[in-house]
Amino acid sequence: MTNQMNRFEGKVALVTGGRSGIGQAIARRLHEEGATVITAQRGEDKMFDWIPADFSDPQTPERVVAEVIDRAGKLDVLINNAGMMMEAGIEEMTLEDWQRNIDLNLTAPFLLTRAALPYLRKTQGSIVNTSSVEGLAANPGHAAYAVTKSGILGLTRSIAVDHGHEGIRCNAVAPGWIDTDLNINLIENSPDAEAFKRDLGKIHPVGRTGKPEEVAALVAFLAADEAGFITGQVYTVDGGRTTKLSLP
């Protein structure tokens, strides 16, 4: 059995959006288990080797993958995590904002995967995409986000089906409410932070919100060789939120 602490020894992982939140937790977990980690995003990563990247630019994904190969010589794990969320209903959202969501949340993972496939083919590599519970259901005013995160699920299954025979696996995680800095600030800046926390606890059967490290643990498993018979699947990490029905 593989030692969990060195599952990624000698492997190279690219984590997009790895400077903060869930992406940072994933980057840390892979590094702790032996991976050489490179992150890619707009802001500087003070923990890991990083590549400046604006993934709304369609030229960026190919450049980023090429830079990873130049620096590390290969690619074993691709984590498509970078994304955005904009609050606007269908009538309020401009076409420009709609397209921006599509470009960053859906087109960028497609282009990154396309650029990475020749290298993942050589290493029998793994891809893990970050979707959301909003890829399975929808919150009010999140039309573009829900559409793109649903699209990630279709992309995940298509990659798995098209490239499984080449030894490439692809899975997705669908996090719910996770205590990232962004969400913590949202709670703390609300009119009644304690009431907000209590209400969040009530909608989760486990009675609390999630931690980025809990998502990272699942991502690490899915990316590791021990998950070699798992592909094309979507794993919800939401404390049971999407399982719970509300009483009338």
UniProtKB/TrEMBL annotation:
Keyword terms, alphabetized: Oxidoreductase
Domain Ketoreductase stretches: 11-180
Chain segments annotated as coiled-coil in the UniProt record: none
Protein name: 3-oxoacyl-[acyl-carrier-protein] reductase FabG
Top-level lineage group: Bacteria
InterPro entries found in the cross-reference section: KR_dom, NAD(P)-bd_dom_sf, Sc_DH/Rdtase_CS, SDR_fam
One BP annotation, GO: bile acid metabolic process
GO molecular-function terms, A-Z: oxidoreductase activity, acting on the CH-OH group of donors, NAD or NADP as acceptor
SMART domains: PKS_KR (SM00822)
Family to which the UniProt record says this protein belongs: Belongs to the short-chain dehydrogenases/reductases (SDR) family.
Keyword Oxidoreductase: yes
Pfam families in alphabetical order: adh_short_C2
